[in-house]
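Figure 6 in text form: structure in, sequence out.
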């Protein structure tokens, strides 16, 4: 297997492709669904810590709260990524029976030859719902899979496939499908795609099924390969019991090293599955106390996971490792610089890519220990609240009395007696 359209100054045979989100600009649809001016940053900036030491919100530094309608921003991202060992971007592609969403940055990239980053696409073929505010039953826009959708969808990709920057495997343009299990008849869909590309000058295509939502076998759907998509399909237990949360919590707190090791150790029967890693993960910004988040998702741990994965991929003859993701800020999953770690994840990427092997194991595996006496106690909290309000009420009464001289003169003798008694028993 060989990968084309990617060159790498480091000489590393394994190429790094980072998933890329385009939801950092206003769209008419998001204006209607979430309020005028909504972008991914809207959720990011609202996040709050759920327990002591919890890193939220994730806020950017170098690139700021960017708008992907600005070409200079995308070019800056490309330079930053290439300077630190990222060989390509995989853009999420949003297509709903002919309607495209969040496509402006992608279309502008296609028309801008100075955006000199190899790229490929991942079809995000799932319904959009109000899952961010716990209303998953309310569908904002659905994948309908109409009779002509198979042909219309693959036709929409031809301009991308034909671009000289598009990433190819064995000289075939690579396409990832995020939820292959949602295709009503995956075998028929794939055959329509392949036949269309053969007849319209594209040639053969290389199809990858994302291993998401319980799917662990790409061959069941007729794809050429699979792509891991952690933290999907985790098989590790949470550490919720070790955390003292500020409020009731119904999500999952995981240990980064434990989960990463489980992916390093994971094998698949036959065929081809591309490995994927993530720098950190915490979607508190989207779902608050229903979040999935990882402790110790920090640059050194990420570097060890990436280094180990690159070595494993090279040993197995794989030429691609995916990183999830370049800029999933609302999922706490980004290589771009932030206020907590600065350029840490970028430098870790470069270090791993250049062959430095600074760690022999995950360097940070500590889970916070709950100090039981620091946990909230109902009656202690209640007495504290009552004391506050009683004091506040007394101060309000005192202020009101001082504003009324006659009442003040009448009550003053009683106040003096109370003060005398307090001195006696203090």
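Output sequence:
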């Amino acid at each position: 297997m060989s990968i084309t359209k990617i060159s790498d100054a480091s000489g590393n045979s394994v190429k790094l492709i980072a998933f890329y989100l385009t939801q950092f600009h206003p769209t008419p649809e998001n204006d209607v669904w979430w309020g005028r001016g909504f972008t991914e940053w809207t959720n990011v900036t609202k996040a709050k810590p759920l327990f002591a030491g919890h890193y939220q919100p994730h806020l950017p530094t170098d690139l700021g709260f960017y708008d992907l309608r600005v070409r200079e921003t995308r070019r800056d991202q490309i330079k930053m990524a290439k300077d630190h060992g990222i060989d390509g971007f995989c853009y999420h592609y949003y297509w709903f029976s002919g309607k495209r969403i969040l496509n402006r940055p992608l279309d502008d990239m296609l028309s801008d030859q100075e955006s000199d980053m190899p790229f490929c696409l991942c079809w995000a073929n799932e319904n959009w719902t109000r899952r961010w505010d716990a209303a998953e039953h309310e569908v904002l826009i659905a994948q309908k899979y109409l009779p002509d959708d198979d042909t219309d969808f693959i036709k929409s990709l031809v301009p991308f496939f034909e671009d000289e920057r598009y990433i190819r495997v064995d000289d075939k343009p690579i396409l990832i499908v995020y939820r292959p299990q949602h295709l009503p008849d995956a075998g028929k869909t794939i055959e329509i795609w392949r036949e269309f590309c053969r007849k319209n000058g594209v040639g053969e295509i290389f199809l990858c099924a994302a291993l998401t939502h319980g799917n662990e076998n790409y061959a069941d759907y007729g794809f050429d390969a699979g792509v891991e998509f952690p933290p999907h399909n985790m098989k590790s237990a949470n550490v919720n019991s070790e955390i003292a949360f500020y409020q009731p919590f119904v999500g999952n707190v995981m240990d980064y090293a434990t989960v990463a090791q489980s992916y390093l150790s994971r094998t698949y029967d036959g065929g081809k599955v591309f490995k994927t890693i993530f720098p950190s993960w915490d979607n508190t910004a989207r779902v608050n106390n229903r979040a999935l988040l990882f402790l110790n998702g920090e640059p050194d741990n990420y570097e060890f996971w990436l280094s180990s994965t690159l070595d494993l991929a090279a040993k197995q003859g794989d030429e691609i490792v995916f990183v999830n993701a370049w800029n999933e800020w609302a999922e706490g999953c980004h290589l771009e610089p932030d206020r907590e770690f600065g350029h840490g994840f970028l430098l870790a990427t470069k270090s791993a890519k250049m062959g430095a092997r600074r760690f022999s194991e995950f360097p940070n595996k500590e889970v916070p220990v709950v100090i039981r006496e620091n946990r909230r106690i109902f009656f202690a909290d209640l007495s504290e609240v009552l004391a506050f309000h009683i004091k506040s009420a007394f101060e309000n009464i005192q202020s009101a009395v001082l504003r009324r001289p006659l009442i003040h003169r009448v009550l003053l003798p009683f106040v003096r007696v109370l003060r005398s008694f307090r001195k006696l028993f203090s």
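Caption detail: Residues 378-402 form the longest helix (25 residues).
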